[in-house]
Structure formats: C-alpha cells, structure tokens
C-alpha cells in the first residue's frame, strides 16, 4: 500500500488550491458588496464606502467622518469534473463513480471595515476580509479519489491601515496584514483499491480514506497605496499588496507516515497583488470605472509538507510552476436620484494554471464576470448595497496519473463550472 500511494498522493497537496468558484487560482475577490455589483471595477479609486480600506489604504483620506461597512457574500458554485476510466483493466470501475458533480459547496464570505479620520490630512482604518480560499468535495467513491477528494481552505486577513493627504491631489497609505489560514484535506483510495493485493494493490474499498491533512497558522504581509485626484470627478488609484508566507502546523496521516497521524507543517505562499484603478464622474448621473489587477502567481513554485516522522522528513512535495495572471474589469454607475444608484460591470479573469499543469484538483480556467448591483441610500448616514455576479468558467480538458507506480493509470478528465454570487452590505457614516 505504501509503495503504491507514495507517488500518487503527492498530488493531495494540490487540493489546497482549486476550483472555479472564485477568482483565478484560489483567489477571492469579495472584499465588498458594492464592488461585487460592478465586477470590482475601479475598487482602488472609487471610495464610495469604508470597504475601500481593503483595496487602497490611501483612499481613507476621502472620508471626513467615521465610516463603517459590513457585508456578506454568498458564493453558490456549480462545478463538475468528470473522468474517463483508465485503459488499464486492473483498475476496473467497480464501486467507483466517474462523475464529480457539484463538487464545490456553497460558501459565505464576510467583510467588515471601519475608517476614522484623525484630522483633515490623517486617517486610520481597519478591514477584515478574505483574499484566498476554496472548498471542494468530490464523491467518496470517486474513481480518482486518490488525487481528488474533499478540501477546505479558509483565510482571513486582519488589515489595519493609515493614510496621509499630501496635498489636494495626492494621498498615500500603508498597512500591515495578519492572515490566519485553516485547512483540511482528505483522500480516498478510489480505483486503486480495485488492484489485487497480489499485484501491489492496497486492498479495501474505494471509499476508504488513505490520507488526511489538517492544519492552521498565521502569516504576515504589508500593503501600500496611492490616490491621485485630478479633481472631484476624476481620480486614479495604484496599490501593492505583498506576498505572504503562511506556515500551517497540524497533523498528517498517509503513506509517508506509515498511515500514522504525525505532526507536520506546510508553507503556503500567497502571491503579491498590484492593482490600478480609475474613476470618472461624467455628469451628475453617470460614472465609469475600471481596473487592471496583476497577481504574482510565479511565486507559487511548489507545495511541500514536512515532518520529522515522515520518511525523508517529507510528507509530500509537488512542483507547481504557476504563471502570473491578469484580471481586467470595466463598470458603470447610474445615480437615479438621492436614494437609488445602480451599477454593472464585466471582468475577464485569467487563469494562472497552464494546460499542461492542469489537474483534477486544480481544473482552473479563464472566466468571465457579469455583475449587477444597487445602493439604496436611506438618509445621509445609512445606505445598503446589494450585488449579484455570474461567473462563467471555460470548459477545460486534461489528463493525470492516478499513480506513477501503476502502468496505464492515466485518466482523462473534463471540467468546468459557473458560480452565482449574491451579497448584501450595510454602510453607515457616524
């Protein structure tokens, strides 16, 4: 059993990063509901509520009173990944499922922000939100259960910021991030259980669990931003958020630990993010806004879990080699009257995973965002945002080995998915 699974289960690390329900890779964009309604076009420049603190610290200077925003986004994905059985008859198809339907459960992404001006030049703020996360759950009897099972990664970014207004046109800002991450991963034997024990098979049933990883940890990062206000109707924002390295400490159970639960750790590299945004108020009713976001996924070179009780001190290791990616967004806002404003947006989100790197645990693809949103302003203090987005992911194909130790164990797969995102947010000026 150990020999058979050691190489195939190296890929279990991959599932810490997956699924087409969010932004490309395992990035999460839902830092505000007002932004959701415009496909996050112009987020580093608009500053229409306190949620801008998650995107551009410099924009805190646009507030002359205490501002609060808090919201919740509900991500309802419809993601599938189906496989074709290997040509190796010894693997068989008995007691396994070839269809991975609805493999991404509904998830809830909260955000909360507060901005406090100190004087007419200095402001501070605090934001709590998520930049990265995922959840996938393949059937327990999935044919490729050894490389695709159930996974959850949750991160939360706690981000205090400070901003200073240099003059009427320029503001600068900076912040630090304390990022908490929690992960759980499980794998089953899948079709490998059909291999007779006499031929090196593990025995048991396809639904038997063969690997489990749990862990949590903290990492730290920093962010910089600038805001250039040509005038009250035209402004630009440029932001940088640093790479963050998080060490997840926990337990690993699998072939390289002789199936015992042993201490282990995994370093997760969260990439740097650069965003440029523009906002233009064309007249009293219409505004246009746009963004270009660069994510430095090339820092994601490998996933490696280590532990003193794993053979060679390595529980698993997998080379990644992701590419850097871009996200482009364009949106518009229509202010109907003093109470109602409506917005819409479109975004193209590039995948950082090339076709040759695509696996069942990362069936990533380019996707298109189509968004609608509205704001109801009850009075000069209170407003409520609602947002909706439809994410259309490309259909992609790939192939992957169940095990390097089994000849003809390559499976072909087809994957694709869409997602519906709904959100509500409350904003209050004190």
From TrEMBL:
Entry keywords, A to Z: Cell outer membrane, Membrane, Signal, Transmembrane, Transmembrane beta strand
Cellular component GO terms, alphabetical: cell outer membrane
Intracellular or extracellular location(s): Cell outer membrane
Membrane topology value: Multi-pass membrane protein
UniProt KW Thylakoid keyword: no
Predominant place of localization: membrane
GO MF annotation list: long-chain fatty acid transporting porin activity
InterPro entries per record: OMPP1/FadL/TodX
Signal peptide: 1-23
Pfam family membership, one: Toluene_X
Entry keyword Ligase: no
Family, as annotated: Belongs to the OmpP1/FadL family.
Protein name (database record): Long-chain fatty acid transporter
